[in-house]
């Protein structure tokens, strides 16, 4: 028997990147977690269905965080005066080493999962640490949260502190054992192949990870062209390959299976074309790019080329887990790109950034991030009554205020695949 869910309220979503669709006092109907339509009047066939009426609240698609490091949640806001490589060595690696202790992992991941559950995020692609027991703790908690996530056991067998260097064969075999267990253990939490980045993975390990992605048809996530020193380092490590992107591509980790590459701040035109050809998803992380002095990604140029772009918080290079903050940071960064780098690249609009945070990033999961028929129903209800001021506002204006002012403090309810999460 189909499970019908009917939500009533002020509906806002983005079918395309160009504009928002709004409907005052409308209805969203889903059956078995899949949207059947958005209506001004409830169709006759649903007249006997129970309606959850949220009054004057806003109902938006759940937000999608394409790039977040769960074990770094405890150090967010720290070391923000450093660039990438020093920050990794002084903060990130030191913190991630603690996850060898499962008691520490249990406490730290509890805080991360609680924050993620209470945010406007409904889907996330998550980096864990290299420790399998701790990664399983994280996956158990995320499964219990009701969110839909990908989680990656991080792999690294070179160029990191001794206590975080894996033996190459152990890294690959432990990853495969973890994959087999994960695939049969969870409904909403799935494994994703996760080489940390090229400098931390030997050619042998990259080859093994590419083979695992193909063998199990698993998605891939990693970092690409975040920092100029990092790019130079990659070229020194792989002098026979033309670009950073070519390294991933050579080892079968660049769109051969669905792939997320975070940052992409310094891509050549050739790399952009390769990303487009391979269908790789870019996770734009504007707050992190500013905090650790990486630069400003040319997002407008990516969109003009037709590249797939979503947003990420990149905890803890980013200090806020709020995807609303990621939207505002994306808009602000694009303004600085236009002013400082290329005046021909227009800043992002609210509809564009909102689209990237919903349907754009959601497409990594399939039909996710919109209220169009056939999309999985991920929804967040926002009670923005204390943000509206004295003058009447349109629904689009109300959304803009929520994005800039809420930081997840006004969530009234939350649904993932039609199931209540909050």
Counted beta strands: 17
Q: Unreliable runs, pLDDT <50, ≥5 residues?
A: none
Intertermini distance = 24 Å
Our Rg estimate from Cα atoms comes to 21 Å
Give the strand line-up of the largest sheet. 3-2-1-4-15-16-17
Q: Indicate the mean pLDDT.
A: 97
Amount of helix:
25-40%
In this structure, how is the largest beta sheet organized?
A: 7 strands, mixed
Q: Structural class per helix/strand content?
A: alpha/beta
- The portion of residues forming beta strands comes to 15-25%
Number of helices: 13
Q: Which of globular, elongated, flat, extended, rod-shaped describes the shape?
A: globular
Order of helices and strands: EEEEEHHEHEEHEEHEHHEHEHHEHHEHEE
Structure description:
The two termini are 24 Å apart. This protein has helices at residues 84-96, 102-117, 132-145, 168-185, 203-216, 228-237, 244-250, 269-278, 286-291, 299-305, 323-340, 350-362, 395-405, and strands at residues 4-13, 21-31, 34-39, 51-61, 63-69, 121-127, 148-152, 154-155, 189-191, 194-195, 220-224, 259-263, 281-284, 308-311, 379-382, 411-416, 419-420. The radius of gyration is 21 Å and the shape is globular. It has 13 helices and 17 strands. It is α/β, with parallel strands linked by helices and 422 residues long. The mean pLDDT is 97. It is 37% helix and 22% strand.
């Amino acid at each position: 028997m189909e499970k019908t869910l009917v939500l009533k309220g002020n509906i806002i979503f983005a079918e395309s990147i160009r504009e928002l669709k709004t409907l005052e006092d409308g209805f969203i109907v889903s059956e078995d977690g899949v949207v059947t339509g958005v209506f001004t009047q409830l169709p006759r066939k649903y007249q006997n269905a129970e309606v959850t009426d949220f009054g004057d609240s806003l109902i938006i698609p759940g937000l999608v965080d394409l790039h977040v490091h769960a074990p770094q949640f405890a150090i967010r806001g720290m070391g923000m005066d450093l660039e990438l490589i020093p920050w990794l060595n002084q903060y990130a690696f030191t913190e991630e080493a603690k996850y060898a202790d499962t008691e520490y992992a249990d406490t730290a991941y509890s805080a991360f999962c609680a924050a993620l559950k209470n945010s406007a995020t409904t889907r996330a692609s998550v980096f864990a640490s290299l420790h399998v027991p701790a990664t399983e703790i994280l996956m158990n908690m995320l499964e219990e949260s009701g969110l839909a996530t990908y989680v990656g056991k991080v792999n690294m067998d070179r160029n990191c502190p001794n206590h975080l260097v894996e033996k190459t064969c152990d890294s690959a075999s432990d990853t495969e054992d973890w994959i087999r267990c994960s695939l049969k253990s969870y409904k909403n939490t799935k494994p994703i192949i996760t080489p940390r980045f090229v400098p931390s993975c030997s050619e042998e390990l990259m080859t093994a990870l590419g083979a695992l992605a193909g063998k199990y048809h698993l998605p891939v996530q990693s970092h690409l062209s975040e920092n100029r020193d990092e790019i130079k380092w990659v070229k020194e490590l792989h002098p026979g390959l033309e670009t950073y992107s070519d390294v991933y591509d050579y080892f079968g980790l660049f769109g051969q299976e669905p792939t997320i590459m975070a940052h992409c701040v310094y891509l050549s035109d050739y790399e952009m074309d390769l990303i487009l050809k391979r269908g790789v998803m870019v996770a734009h992380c504007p707050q992190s790019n500013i905090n650790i002095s990486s630069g400003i990604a040319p997002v407008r140029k990516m969109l003009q080329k037709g590249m797939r772009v979503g947003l990420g918080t990149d905890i803890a290079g980013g200090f806020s887990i709020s995807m609303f903050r990621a939207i505002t940071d994306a808009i602000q960064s694009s303004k600085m790109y236009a002013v400082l780098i290329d005046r021909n690249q227009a800043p992002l609009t609210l509809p564009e950034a909102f689209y990237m945070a919903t349907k754009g990033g959601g497409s990594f999961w399939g039909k996710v991030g919109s209220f169009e028929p056939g999309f999985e129903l991920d929804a967040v209800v926002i009670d923005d009554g204390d943000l509206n001021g004295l003058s009447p506002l349109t629904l689009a204006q109300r959304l803009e205020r929520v994005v800039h002012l809420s930081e997840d403090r006004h969530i009234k309810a939350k649904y993932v695949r039609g199931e209540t999460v909050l």
